[in-house]
Design goal:
globular, 14% strand, alpha+beta, two-stranded antiparallel ribbon, 3 helices
């Protein structure tokens, strides 16, 4: 079963550190996607520049 979570739900909460640690293990064939998620996604969420959703199963 798949789940979807908005990254913004973790921003500024105790969950942010947990999510950041989990993202460090993320590997993607598209290096741009991987680097965005690891280096810019939280900053962009905080600045309301973009929205990121995590999907998993």
């Amino acid at each position: 079963m798949l789940f979807t979570k908005a990254l913004r739900e973790a921003v500024g909460t105790e969950a942010e550190k947990i999510v950041r640690n989990a993202i460090e293990g993320f590997v993607c064939e598209d290096n741009d996607v991987e680097q965005f998620l690891k280096n810019k996604a939280f900053e962009f969420e905080k600045r309301d520049k973009s929205r990121t959703y995590l999907v998993g199963g």
